[in-house]
Amino acid sequence: MEEFVITVNDTSPGLPAKEQIHQLARRLHQAKRGLIIVGPQSQKLLETTLLPLAQQLNYPILADPLSQLRGSASAQDLIISSYDAFFHLPRLVDALAPDIILRFGAMPTSKPLLLYIKDAIACPQVIIDGNMGWDEPTYSASELIRTEPTAFCAHLLSSLKALDMADGETFCARGREWAALWHGIYQRSQHVLTDAIHGFPDFFEGRVFTELATLLPSSATIYRQ
Fold first, then answer.
1. In 3D, which of 207, 218, 223 has the Cα closest to residue 76?
2. Any idea what DSSP says for residue 85?
């Protein structure tokens, strides 16, 4: 039986030491095919620091329906939502193999994404756990950091900017091809899904949500009784 080892960094309710944040920043700085995964979480303010972090790294964000990120007006070229549509294609999964994964929130609800995470067991996976619990049912993570995620992202971003200034080159320029690959696949998947939905009869129930997405303001909330 393969041994499962995970490093737990319990800094609640504070932040990791500056050197620990800087060490993680150096790892991210060197990884050109990084990925951010955000599962169900309730902190609306997380996007204020997480999205700038993703832009600095040029890391795509796989956003769960309950991540509070899918409706964000910022970093839309990095936010990926319809990943279920292409994660069942083995050739694409191989082409999208990451160097490192940062995961926030609870485990995502998507089974194809869960299988993708398990397939990436060889790559370092760092979980930022704001609930001070154990959001890791896959046994594939290498590190669990219990800390406040919004402040953690802000400090990590500051450390990354310092590294970029020291190198005289922004990571965004170096990671552009990786982000463009994800965005291109995502856009093609969206077009295929949209064409399929509009090909059904007018009273197809699956069209309700796509129609509401175009009609409702971004701040709208839907309640179901």
1. 218
2. G
One-letter amino acid for residue 48 of the chain? T
Most confident of 39-48, 96-105, 196-205: 96-105
Question: Whole-angstrom Cα distance, residue 45 to residue 54?
Answer: 15
101-114 pLDDT, tens digit per residue, is: 999 999 888 999 99
Strands 34-38 and 61-63, how do they pair?
A: parallel
Exposed, middle or buried: residue 217 (CB in 10 Å: 0-12, 13-18, 19+)? exposed
Q: What is the DSSP letter of 23?
A: H
Record the tokens describing residue 76, joined without a space.
């839309």
The CA R_g of the chain, rounded to the nearest whole Å, is 18
What's the pTM value of the predicted model, to 2 decimals?
0.85
pLDDT of residue 224: 67
Q: 128: how many CB neighbours lie within 10 A of its CB? A: 25
Say whether pLDDT at 190 is over 80: yes
Contact 83, 113 (CB under 8 A): yes
Q: Which domains does the chain have, with CATH numbers?
A: 7-215 (3.40.50.1220)
Residue in 116, 112, 117 with CA at minimum distance from that of residue 84: 112
Q: Tokens 């694409």 correspond to what residue?
A: 92
Burial class (CB in 10 A: 0-12, 13-18, 19+), 225: exposed
Residue 107: DSSP 8-state: P
Separation of alpha carbons 155 and 171, rounded Å? 17
